[in-house]
Amino acid sequence: MSTKEATPKPAAPKKQAAAKKPAKKAVKPVAKKSKLASTKTKAPKVVTKKTLIKKAPTKKAQVGKAQQAAKAQTRGAHSLVAKKQKWMHSVHWHKPRTIKSPKNPKYPRKSTPGRNRMDNHAIIKHPLTTESAMKKIEDNNTLVFITDIKANKPQIKRAVEKLYDIRCMKVNTLITPDGRKKAYVRLTHEFDALDVANKIGII
After folding, report:
1. Is there a contact between 118 and 155 (Cβ–Cβ < 8 Å)?
2. Bridge partners of residue 187, in order along the sequence
3. What is the edge-to-edge ordering of all strands in the sheet holding 181-187?
4. Alpha-carbon Rg of the chain, whole angstroms?
5. 47, 150, 173, 182: least surrounded by Cβ within 10 Å?
6. What's the rounded Cα separation, in Å, for the pair 144 and 131?
7. pLDDT of residue 72
8. pTM over 0.90, yes/no
9. Three-state SS at 167
């Protein structure tokens, strides 16, 4: 009987080994399912209208915005605090210097340069030969000319000196009721107005 009892004892560990095998098989399919689940989560999400719509601001944010608007309204839109402008520490204001690149035109804006329209012959139109003008020549040593309306005294003086090779002491001008400019040119003591009038051809 002792031999028979010894034989069933080694059979017990075989049953335990057999019981362990199906437990391992049960664990494997669970691991496979977890892998499939991980691959499904990595798939790209579909963008819908719900995802695009932003979340509504919280009550605290809304209250903060309302308080800022109330402060701005009390200050005013044109207040110095709202503008945050710099204070000037001097009375003078200078225009800021900016980059001024030199002009580099691709073609000339004028095909030909403009000519000087106020030359000597355009300034002095003709001498006067009236009785009062002749009296000025004899008594005051002055010549009388009709000139361009836009000509000034220095231009008249230069034109007379270049045209007739004389020296002028003084030039007086006036505009007649006709709208013409009359110039009284007084000569220096070196030149006689009668001789110059003879050269011109007035007398």
Report:
1. yes
2. 168
3. 124-127, 142-147, 181-187, 168-175
4. 56
5. 47
6. 11
7. 79
8. no
9. coil
